Amino acid sequence: MRKQYRTPALAAAAALMAVAGLSACGSEGNGLAEKSGKEVSEEAGKALKDVTSFQMQMESEQDGATFSIDLTMDRDGNCVGKIDQGEQGTAEIVKQGDKVWMKPDQKFWETQGGANGVAAYELFKGKYIAGTTQDPMLQGMAGSCDLKALQQDINSDDDGTTWSDPKEGEVDGKNVVTIKGTSEEDEEETTMHVAAEGTAYPVQIVSVEGGAETTLGFGKFDEGVPDDVPSEDESFDISKLEQAAGS
User: Fold this and answer.
1) How many helical (H) and strand (E) elements, i.e. helices and strands, does the chain have?
2) Which contiguous run of DSSP H or E holds residue 152?
3) Which stretch is the leader sequence (predicted)?
4) Least confident of 8-12, 23-27, 88-92, 128-132
5) What is the pLDDT of residues 5-21, one digit of tens each?
6) Whole domain around residue 197: which residue ranges?
7) Going along 63-209, which residue ranges are E strands?
8) Upper half-sphere CA count for residue 98 (Cβ side, 13 Å)
9) CATH number at residue 118
């Protein structure tokens, strides 16, 4: 189960953020429209590296299957949100420090756990599974909340990417500049939009590679992560789940 979470959520996000060439618009804004595509990429990457928290929304589609995440995370390892694996179900997550709460839906339990999953759903339905980052079942999900790891990967492998000059535009009602990047090494095409006013935060990144299209959206920069956690009445300790699953 751990790989189910970590590979699509963390790896895909890190890979896209690693080539963070983004954009902003308008000579009356923050000046990104007057810069080269590479300079826009560098400024947007720096902006992402400097944030203490943000919301990241990702949707990936390949061969008709979709995968999405919506996570708000900070540098301290706190996180709240949801991971949707399409036909394999969804799971909500809350993480504060080394404590983790996960609430899978019925489809998740059934597809991930087989017969044991069906029994676990009946036992824990509507409840969060509570544990720590040391619990094998929760490690992968917790890893999706690693903002520091994402920031370390920004601009780490973009030397082979060629960026277009920025163009002014609008995305989700926000003024942006847009640049497009191509990488001959992995035949990836990336379109990035960055705020044209204020800090050069990325607004959206769209990447197409090998028939898969992934869209990343960013927001709520430096607004922190809600510190509400599930109550004891809303939770079951992970040890009870392990007993039910025959661990």
Assistant:
1) 7, 13
2) helix 147-153
3) 1-24
4) 23-27
5) 333 444 444 444 443 33
6) 2-244
7) 65-74, 79-84, 90-96, 99-104, 128-132, 161-163, 167-171, 174-183, 188-195, 202-209
8) 5
9) 2.50.20.20
